[in-house]
Design brief:
Layout (H helix, E strand, L loop, with lengths): L1 H9 L3 E7 L9 E6 L4 E6 L7 E9 L2 H5 L7 E9 L6 E5 L6 E2 L5 E12 L2 E4 L2 E7 L5 E2 L2 H11 L5 E6 L8 E5 L8 E5 L3 E5 L6 E6 L12 E6 L3 H4 L1 E7 L5 E9 L2 E16 L11 E3 L5 E4 L22 E5 L28 E4 L4 E6 L6 E5 L5 E7 L10 E2 L2 E2 L14 E4 L6 E6 L12 E5 L4 E6 L8 E7 L4 E6 L5 E5 L5 E6 L17
Length: about 525
C-alpha cells in the first residue's frame, strides 16, 4: 500500500491532449505529443509556405482567447525561429524533465493553449489552437502557470539538438582536428596528436592513413601534430599543409602534395618547409592552420609559455609568438612564403614582424572562419580566471598578458588600445576553451548564424547569444557531455562535429527528428 501511495505521489502531471477547432483555412501544421508519462512534451511544426525563408513564433496562454486572435495578445511568446526552403522537415522541440507540481489547497484541472504563427513575405498563416490539460493525480496540488510557461521558454531553444556518435566502428587516438578537403569528395580527415592523419570515406565505411609523421614529432602535453589545412585549389593542385611541433619542440608548418597514384594519401617525398618557430617551453603552441577567403594561410601561435608569459611575447609584435599569422604561400618552389602587402606590419621599420595579422593571444586553440561572412573566430585558453572567445580583426591587440578576459592581470593595468573578447567565462563553467564554428548548416535551425564552442575540461557545449550589454555576448550552455572536447569540425555541408580526446569518439550535432536512418556523412551528389 505504501509503495502504491509513493508511486502515486511522484506521478505529478498527466498531459491530456485535445484539439480546439479553429476556423482558419489551410492552417499551419502543428502538433503536440505527450511522451514519458507526461514529463515530456514534443512540439512539431511543418512549414506551410514554399518560400525561401519564414519566421515562426510559438505562443502559449492559460486562456484560449489569448492565442485565438490573429495577432496574439495576453499570451507568452515561448520561442522564435526560422525555417527556409531547404528545411522541409518539421521543426521538432522536445521539452524534457518538466518540474513537478506544487502543493495547493484543492485539486484543480488546469489547461494551457498553444498556437504557432508563420510569417512569409508579408503573409501570415496560423496553426490550429492546441490544448494541453494539466491534471494532478494527487489532491492538494496545483501548477503555477507562470512557472510552467517560464520553464517552457527556457527549455525550448536548442531542444531539437542531439549528439550522435559517428564512425563508431572505426578507431581514433587523441583526435585534435577534423577537416574536409573541400573537393566535393565528402571525405573527412581526422588529425591524431601522435602524428597520423586518418582519412574517412563518406558514411564512415572505411578509413586509411593520409599522412604519418609520428617519427618526426613527440606527442606529449600540448605538443604533437595539431592540424591540417587544404589549399583552396586542392582539387587541382593537391596541396595540404600541416601544423606540428618537431622533436626539438619547435613549431613547424609544412606542405605536402597528394600522391599521384592514391588520392587518399599524401606523398611524403613532396615535403616543403614553410615556417619554423622556436618555442621557449612545451606549452602554448597555438595549433590552428586555415585558409581565408583571401587565399592566404593563417597560423595561430601561443605565447610559448609558461605561466603568465614570462617573456612578454603576447605584447611583443617583434616576435611571432602570441599571434595569428597571415602569409601568402602561392610562391615558387624556392620561396616558402611572402608577406601580404596589407598585413598590419608589412611595411614596418620598427622590427615588428610582417607576418602578424593580430596579436595579444595566450594560446589560441581552434580558430575558424565563418563560411558566410568571412569573419575569423578563435578561442583563447586562459590562465587562471577566464576563457575567451575572440572575433579577430586585422591589426588588433587582444590584450594578453595585460588582460585576461575582461579583467586586468595586474590591478590597475592600462587597457588603452586593447581589444576585449566578445565573450569570457569563468571557472564555474570550464577551464580550457575549445574554439568552434559559426553554424551554417541546414539541419539545426536554432543554431543558424550562431557561434558554437566547447570546453575541454568541463565537456560543456555553448552557443554564443546576442547581448544587450555593451561588454559583449552571452554564452548559453546547451549540452553537458562527458567528453574532453578537443576540437570541432565541419563537413562539406556545414554540419558540425566534435571530438572526444579521451575516448577518440567523434560526434555529430543532429536534429532529433533526423537521427534515424541518416548517414554520418552525406555522400556527394552526382554531377550527372
Amino acid at each position: 500500500m505504501k509503495n502504491s501511495l509513493r508511486a502515486l505521489f511522484f506521478t505529478t502531471v498527466l498531459f491530456a491532449l485535445a484539439e480546439v477547432p479553429d476556423l482558419s483555412a489551410s492552417p499551419l501544421p502543428f502538433r503536440i505529443s505527450r511522451i514519458d508519462r507526461g514529463k515530456t512534451l514534443e512540439f512539431a511544426v511543418t512549414p506551410a509556405s514554399a518560400v525561401e525563408r519564414c519566421q515562426y513564433q510559438l505562443y502559449g496562454a492559460r486562456k484560449r482567447r489569448a492565442v485565438a486572435r490573429r495577432a496574439p495578445r495576453g499570451s507568452a511568446l515561448l520561442h522564435e525561429w526560422e525555417i527556409d526552403e531547404n528545411r522541409s522537415k518539421a521543426a521538432v522541440f522536445l521539452v524534457e524533465e518538466l518540474s513537478p507540481l506544487r502543493r495547493g489547497k484543492q485539486r484543480q484541472k488546469k489547461r494551457a493553449f498553444f498556437r504557432v504563427r508563420e510569417q512569409c513575405n508579408g503573409q501570415t498563416t496560423l496553426s490550429r489552437v492546441r490544448r494541453v490539460s494539466l491534471r494532478s493525480r494527487r489532491r492538494g496540488e496545483t501548477l503555477s502557470y507562470r512557472n510552467f510557461f517560464q520553464e517552457l521558454r527556457e527549455k525550448l531553444p536548442y531542444s531539437e539538438i542531439t549528439l550522435t556518435e559517428v564512425f563508431s566502428e572505426l578507431s581514433f587516438r587523441q583526435p585534435v582536428d577534423i577537416r574536409t578537403a573541400g573537393d566535393g569528395s565528402g571525405r573527412m580527415f581526422l588529425v591524431e596528436q601522435g602524428g597520423t592523419i586518418q582519412v574517412v570515406q563518406p558514411g564512415g565505411a572505411a578509413q586509411g592513413i593520409f599522412l604519418d609523421i609520428s617519427d618526426r614529432t613527440t606527442a606529449s602535453g600540448e605538443r604533437g601534430l595539431l592540424s591540417i589545412a587544404f589549399h583552396p585549389e586542392y582539387a587541382t593542385n593537391g596541396y595540404a599543409f600541416i601544423h606540428f611541433t618537431d622533436e626539438t619542440g619547435s613549431t613547424v608548418v609544412e606542405r605536402f602534395t597528394v600522391d599521384d597514384e592514391n588520392e587518399d594519401a599524401l606523398d611524403p617525398t613532396t615535403r616543403k618547409e614553410i615556417l619554423t618557430v622556436e618555442q621557449p617551453s612545451a606549452v602554448h603552441n597555438g595549433g590552428s592552420l586555415l585558409f581565408g577567403a583571401d587565399g592566404y594561410l593563417y597560423v595561430t601561435l601561443g605565447d610559448g609559455g609558461s605561466q603568465l608569459d614570462p617573456e612578454a611575447n603576447g605584447q611583443d609584435p617583434t616576435t611571432l609568438l602570441g599571434s595569428i599569422l597571415r602569409i601568402d604561400i602561392d610562391t615558387d618552389d624556392e620561396t616558402p612564403y611572402e608577406i601580404p602587402a596589407d598585413n598590419p606590419f608589412a611595411e614596418s621599420s620598427g622590427g615588428e614582424r610582417g607576418e602578424i595579422y593580430a596579436y595579444g593571444f595566450r594560446n589560441p586553440w581552434r580558430a575558424a572562419f565563418d563560411r558566410t561572412t568571412g569573419e575569423l573566430w578563435t578561442g583563447d585558453v586562459g590562465q587562471s580566471s577566464f576563457e575567451e572567445i575572440n572575433r579577430v580583426v586585422r591589426g588588433e591587440n587582444y590584450g594578453w598578458v595585460t588582460m585576461e578576459g575582461t579583467q586586468c592581470v595586474v590591478e590597475g593595468c592600462d587597457s588603452t588600445g586593447l581589444t576585449l573578447p566578445v565573450h569570457a567565462y569563468g571557472r564555474e563553467l570550464g577551464r580550457s576553451v575549445t574554439g568552434g564554428y559559426v553554424y551554417r548548416g541546414e539541419a539545426l535551425f536554432s543554431l543558424s548564424g550562431r557561434y558554437l564552442f566547447g570546453d575541454f575540461i568541463s565537456g560543456r557545449i555553448f552557443v554564443l547569444e546576442e547581448s544587450e550589454a555593451s561588454t559583449g555576448r552571452l554564452a548559453t550552455p546547451i549540452r553537458d557531455t562527458d567528453a574532453f572536447i578537443s576540437t570541432f569540425g565541419e563537413d562539406e555541408d556545414g554540419e558540425l562535429y566534435y571530438a572526444d580526446y579521451g575516448t577518440g569518439g567523434i560526434y555529430r550535432l543532429e536534429a532529433r527528428n533526423a537521427r534515424r536512418n541518416r548517414s554520418p556523412i552525406t555522400p556527394p551528389k552526382s554531377s550527372g
